[in-house]
Design a protein that fits this description.
Order of helices and strands: EHHHEHEHHHEHHHHH
Number of helices: 12
Strand content: 5-15%
Distance between the termini: 19 Å
Number of strands: 4
Strand order of the largest sheet: 1-2-4-3
Bound molecules: flavin-adenine dinucleotide
Radius of gyration: 21 Å
Length: 241
């Protein structure tokens, strides 16, 4: 998978700070922004993110290009409604030469890889045959597996991103969307480090776990005082969805 931050609100944290200060000032936002230094911005944003005054975060938006993920992954992604999406069309773009995402659990074993690859190849050939027989792309695509790769552009504001990271960086999320969420998080952290300082699953962002009854490798790592990153990004056991 390839994930790029295509565009984002210029100076996202200054803008959020300006919006926040408008709530508590007689001055309009245009006058407030001139007085804000980045240091001041960090302090107030930290406080407001902590107490849950999250509507100010909606002013900062981030647009990502997500390439080479499966349709199974984007189906989960688009369940997040406070966002905008533009996805490669399976009606206008032929799937005849598409690539497929092979889950690591299948890829690591020769027998399971063979089963997977055989079915994918059969589906690809059947798809091409249907097109030759005059079936339009919009109908031939019905036989294509969910593993088929797709590209999507997604725009979310900072508030929705925090929510998305809470659900999808969690070890309970499925491995592919979890990998996507961690990549998106690392990109936005570079341009809005204060807003996303504690972003991630609830065990990181809030120090609590709503999934206590399910043992999780990430929680074990955190309990031992270790770093969470690699476990959460790469482990593909112990998930659902
Ligand atoms: C581990 C995991 C397992 C899952 N398993 C399943 C499953 O088995 N089946 C399934 O169907 N889905 C499943 N989902 C998807 C899940 O139910 C949500 O649809 C998805 O995570 C989007 O989250 P959301 O609705 O909170 O957020 P968003 O759509 O991102 O919305 C953000 C927030 O806005 C508010 N909001 C948005 N729309 C409304 C609305 N119409 N009314 C009121 N408030 C609203 C809510 O507070 C919401 O949390 C799973 C998700 C996870 C993370």
């Amino acid at each position: 998978m390839k994930v790029e931050l295509l565009s984002y609100t210029p100076n996202p944290e200054l803008l959020v700070e300006e919006a926040a200060r408008t709530c508590y000032s007689k001055k309009p936002g245009s006058k407030i922004i001139k007085k804000i230094t980045s240091k001041k911005a960090s302090k107030l944003i930290k406080k407001l993110v902590k107490i849950g005054h999250h509507s100010i975060l909606e002013h900062a938006v981030f647009t990502f290009s997500v390439e080479g993920v499966s349709r199974a992954c984007t189906h989960q992604l688009v369940r997040h409604r406070i966002a905008s999406y533009s996805q490669q069309s399976q009606r206008y773009v032929s799937l005849g030469n598409s690539n497929f995402v092979v889950p690591p659990t299948i890829r690591k074993d020769q027998k399971t890889s063979e089963i997977f690859n055989r079915i994918v190849e059969e589906a690809r050939n059947a798809y091409k045959k249907l097109l030759e027989l005059g079936i339009p792309e919009e109908d031939a695509r019905y036989i294509i597996p969910q593993a088929v790769q797709t590209n999507i552009v997604v725009t979310m504001n900072a508030r929705e991103l925090l929510h998305f990271f809470k659900l999808r960086c969690c070890m309970r999320a499925q491995w592919e969307i979890r990998a996507l969420a961690w990549r998106m998080l690392s990109l936005v952290k570079k341009v809005a480090p204060t807003i996303f300082e504690n972003a991630g699953p609830p065990c990181i962002s809030e120090g609590i776990c709503p999934e206590e009854e399910f043992p999780c490798k990430l929680r074990e790592v955190l309990k031992r005082g270790g770093k969470s990153g690699n476990t959460a990004k790469t482990d593909n056991s112990n998930n659902r969805s």
